[in-house]
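Q: Hi! First time doing this. I have a protein sequence and I read that you can turn it into a structure. Is that right? Here it is:
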Amino acid sequence: MAPRVVGDPERIVNQVIEETRQDIEKRIAEALEAARSVLEKAYDEALRELEKALDESLRGLEERLRSAEATKEVELRRELAKLRARYVDEVLQEALEKLHDYVPRDRYEAFLARLMEDAKKKLGGKKAKVIPTERDRELVARLTKRYGFELGGETTSGHGGFLVEAEDGTVLDFTLDNVLSDVIDKARSLIAEELFK
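A: Yes, that's right. Below is the predicted 3D structure, encoded as structure tokens:
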């Protein structure tokens, strides 16, 4: 036996269609809500990850910046120290160049004679040749004869004075740069102090 339809079949079909439509709309709304919730969570998670990555990147950049600043500061201090040393050396060299202008010739010759006597004592009679600085070549040549040394054909660098080379290879340094090294170091400190107060 076939089921019997009671009432208006069109109305029943419309009612079934409406109930089905409402059910589908409800399910779509639930699916959309679930999808929106999933998307919001994913968005929030992505946003947190992005903020975390940006914070880490920012910290890394700040650290690199501090490191670069520290390196640059060290380089600048090093360059400043080099400049200061250069200026101090220039002033000192100028002062040493003018030393002969301030010391009377006879006093300077007596000073070199004392150095020559000291060399004679230290060598204890050994034969030796004297190598003068270019500046003191003539003066040292006269003193060399007086103290029985041989005058070398070459010259040495320096602001004055001489070297003595014994026949056994011993070399005595009587250049002003060596003899006055303590005074020169003190002068260097005083010059630096005056220049960079």
